[in-house]
Amino acid sequence: MRNFTMSALLLLVMTGHVFGGGYQVSLHGHKQIGMGLIGTSLSLDASAAFYNPGALAMMPDQFGVQAGVSGIFASTAFQMKQPSLYQARTDNPPGTPFYFYVAGKITDKLAAGLAVNTPYGNSLAWEDGWAGRFLIQEISLMALTVQPTISYRVTDQLSVGAGFVYAYGAVEMERALPVQGPDGEGRVNIEGSTANFGFNAGIQYEHSSGIQVGLSYRSRIDMEVDDADALFSVPASLSGLFPAENKVAVSLPLPANLDFGLSYQVNPNMMVGMALNYVFWDAYDELHFDFETNTPGLQDSRNPREYSNTLILRLGGQYRVNESLFVRAGGYFDPSPANENYFSPETPSLNNLAFTGGLSYIPMPGLSIDLSLLYVIGMEQEMMYVPENFGGTYQSRAFIPGLGISFSF
Amino acid sequence: MYINKIKHILLFFALTALVACEAEIDQYTPDPGQANLTTFVAVGNSLVAGFADGDLYRSGQENSLANIIAGQLMHTGLGSFKQPLMKDELGFGNRLVLAEVEGSLMPVPMPGTPDPANFANIYQTEGPFHNLGVPLAKVSHLFFEGYGALNPYYGRFASNPAASTVISDAAALDPTFFQLWIGHNDILGYATSGGEGDGITPAISFMTMYLMAVEIMTHNGAKGVLGNIADITSIPFFQTVPYNALLLDDQNIVDLLNHAYSAAPHINFILGPNPLVVADNDHPAGLRQLEAGELVLLTALGGIRNDGWGSQVPLPAQYYLNLDQIENIAGATDEYNQTISMAAETFGLAYVDIRSVLAEAEHGIYFDAIGFNTEFVTGGVFSLDGIHLSARGNAIVANEFIAAINRKYNASIPKATIGSFPGIVFP
Fold first, then answer.
1. Structural domains present in chain A
2. ipTM score assigned to the predicted complex
3. What are the DSSP calls for B70-97, one per residue?
């Protein structure tokens, strides 16, 4: 039963579609999502364990637990480099990233918590047989992190915290191979998983005037899959060149994040804030496939990605309508980390402009039902994968409603 | 009351989702520019006809250079484009397919019996035809009255096999736009006979007849596109068997061969790769070993493998090209290409430098994330005969023709998607 639950859980997570820059997913709390995904300077509840461990000790309640899930309905469209009439789009299954947080105060100054969520992921399926199938037909990759956290309030205004991050990552991808047999084109399917460690640390300052400042850092974690299965399906006469059951080592960095947040409680009902997320995407310089068995037809391949660091600007706020209702709104601009000459359709990450809204309904003290809605515009841009002369104009849209529940006392 | 408000908000979000959830990129609009593309006629040889894998067969014709271009011109005003299609996949019965023979992959004759209807004239029942690519045709053949009686590839779709000419059949369609890609066979017959059979058409004759063809095709004011001649000696037919293809790994055999040729001291064998021994009437001894830079024909491969050609038996002279012959071919190609580019300029036509395109492909080139080069079989550009283009090779060249038309006439004809055409089929 437990095994079943775990794999069902993973299955759900595996379908998280990329909608943020690169393959980072930032759906970690519906209150934060409602406010443009700001969160670094907020000490709302147990979700601070992820957003800024330094803020956890500042949370108002003694104990909090919360869980939530989002439904990602996303599509990417492609128009081949002109002049061409060729268009294709993705046909993605809805993704469902989730989060779970629990935190409590051990003493007045010391808090501890646990964060479980899915900060990275990418799942997309291009329409079958599309023109870019030799680069990618389908991919799903995800990272599930579990982060035990402690936080300590140094003074009434200043607290610090840190968490240990355990990350589990899984990848599955399929490409077509440009070798044709009587039954169609060859294919390769790569599937593997791995785990690694990292940390998350932060510091929070809260002034009695209502100003809050937070700074947090999540370390880079390299997901190194040493022995993924590489299953080749090719015409029989080429089976010597492409051994059917090969192994491959492939590595993907989960980039570090440096987040700064600033928020201001304007009056008892109104709060506004901003956040700057600096993402160290330059960690992703290439995607390297190192096959266990090489043949004249199957060499290791180094695929340049040449990502650049990005700075995401987020703005948002919330308004307390009455004791049982909060409404929220926000937005952000998340520039693409991808290099326009090394743009691969496996991670069609564009400049994203997003608008968010949300609300919390509080039927009784301590219980909050949180709804969020995120609309992401992946701005149209011409991108090429120069090494293999493939490219065109990409555009994407994502519509992401979310539902969460939090309980605290 | 708040519940009501929430309902409204949710409804608003749901509606937003419905209208804005799908990514959508505006389609681009094709445009013929200054070219009138309503009636398109293609004139040329096997490279235009869709000849591949040693024969002209139905699916090869469907993926012919002319048909791929025509398919794209449909977006800019072309009404119809008719080809003289074979009835089956066997054509005249010379088609090659890949098969595993004794553990190695090689082209072998495709089994089966061709439909006799492939040989019958279909002009009355299916003509006239817009693809006037005639395998084997040289530039002079375009004007050859009764060429259909001589060349069955033309005979099967000529308006009158005993009297009509290819160029008159083309002009009779009153094209608004034409493609002319001819001239390879004026060199190829020489090259594929090792310089021993057919001669190279003299440059002056080529020029006269080429200009005459262009004159006729443009007579009614038609615009068009001309393709130049590729380096014939760079195709897999001449690049697959190296000059030193004789690999010896046994000292006993080396000794035996040296002993056998003891009367010809200029011939020596060593362990490792050895230049092939060839017949050469210009050499005092009548035989010699090949030099680096000389080219062996693909058709010599069977004899080298099975009959001791190049070692026990000198390779016959019609199976290799010496340096002079290679120079003759390069010289003719240069002269023909000067004529073709001059014709394009004089008549105000688009010009495609196919020679450069294929030269670039030699070193490996990507289109739509598919890697190509000019290697035999595995390179993907050439079909199994090592001379003619594959379907994807045709699509690559078609896109070059389209690009040239777009440049010359400020048109915006969409390019073909290379990966949507079939690759070489492996067993």
1. 5-408 (2.40.160.60)
2. 0.90
3. HHHHGGGT---------SSSSTTTT-EE
